[in-house]
């Protein structure tokens, strides 16, 4: 089973040179720590920044520089600032190449639910609905099962959905999976020491297994 | 140049009536109009509808207006981090419209730009789409969303001049420039107010045409929600 850091590390291998990338809050934020330094990529922050730099040292903290998670940040070399309408114009307009976000549930046709649990306090969707409605390449980072052991990879989402038919790939603590265009989770890789049988037993949606499934490499 | 200067926050918000619709710039607590919020707290008004991406925290920002029961309705994209907000929402004292952040931004932009409605892919197939018109363009479904306009928009900039031209700093820009365009009256508070002619016109983010009142604010706290430090 992978730790959160290892999930982030595996997702970082999907990043390609020259990409503009939006990272969601949680595990996706950690991906930035594992992007190889020889790749030139630009991280987008939906509150109005292209080019997120590292967290500041104590003397460089600026309340006028935060990311979408409201954390203090710095500007990377060559960054640009803009307003919220422009930020989502670049998201909806398809200019951001890769979106990585967390999820509560993903369905076998690529629907995602990550904003609301009925009966609990609703905090809002933030920018998630705009991101998933527009991005060509969406990778989900999440645990394979919920805290009480139920599969989060389902035939259909039970929770209110954030977007339909949008997820391309999922990296969990157990596996890397791709959404088939005909529906179903294609098993691509398994976490070190995790068997195909275990993944099968913990995937409620249709799992597609073709040939030998390799272990992830780091 | 038309002089837009008012004396202070008290004068800027003095005629905002109960039950009016306000827009307030800011993302989290970054770039919020701190001085105008403090001045509104001194006013005996209520029933406000506030368009703002977030709703502040319990003891700062819009959270202060909520605590004083001045707000009837929030139109926002994300409202976590606020226990009093949650209490009022669950007890039915407060109404909330949750809107995808990009749709919120574009509705405000459209309001300022005279575009009554537009189609967006955000929210298709979700609760957000309920009751809304959809249309297919080139094989993909889009939702019809309408503009947002306010009686007063209240924004915070870094620098401004007496003609109402504004320059923002860092990610404190966020919703401020678009909200400036979408209020019948736009009130701008700035950290530094200079005479018209002293800002470089090449650097102006918001042209003064959108701004009706401007003043230099004071004692900015600029509270940080998540102080995150590199080791």
What can you tell me about this protein's structure?
- The complex is a heterodimer of chains A (218) and B (231).
- With 218 residues, chain A is an alpha/beta fold.
- Chain A has a single domain (4-208), classed as Glutaconate Coenzyme A-transferase.
- Chain A has 5 helices and 13 strands.
- In chain A, strands 4-3-2-1-5-8-10-11-12-13 form a 10-stranded mixed sheet, with helices on both faces. A 3-stranded mixed sheet of chain A has the order 7-6-9, with no helix packed on it.
- The radius of gyration of chain A is 17 Å and the shape is globular.
- The model of chain A has no long low-confidence stretch (mean pLDDT 96).
- Chain B has 231 residues and is an alpha/beta fold.
- Chain B has a single domain, classed as Glutaconate Coenzyme A-transferase, CATH 3.40.1080.10.
- Chain B contains 6 helices and 11 strands.
- In chain B, the strands form 2 sheets. In chain B, strands 1, 2, 3, 4, 8, 9, 10 and 11 form an 8-stranded mixed sheet that branches. Chain B has a 3-stranded antiparallel sheet with strand order 5-7-6.
- The N and C termini of chain B lie far apart (50 Å).
- The model of chain B has no long low-confidence stretch (mean pLDDT 97).
- Chains A and B meet through helix 3 and helix 4 of A and helix 4, helix 5 and helix 6 of B.
Indicate the proportion of strand residues of chain A.
15-25%
Name the CATH class of chain A. Alpha Beta
Could you name the ranges of chain A where pLDDT drops below 50 across 5 or more consecutive residues? none
Output the strand order for the largest sheet of chain A: 4-3-2-1-5-8-10-11-12-13
How much of the sequence lies in strands of chain B comes to 25-35%
User: How many whole angstroms does the radius of gyration of chain B measure?
Assistant: 18 Å
Radius of gyration of chain A (Å): 17 Å
* Strands of chain B, count: 11
Tell me which CATH architecture of chain A applies here. Answer: 3-Layer(aba) Sandwich
What CATH architecture of chain B would you give?
A: 3-Layer(aba) Sandwich
Mean pLDDT of chain A, nearest integer?
96
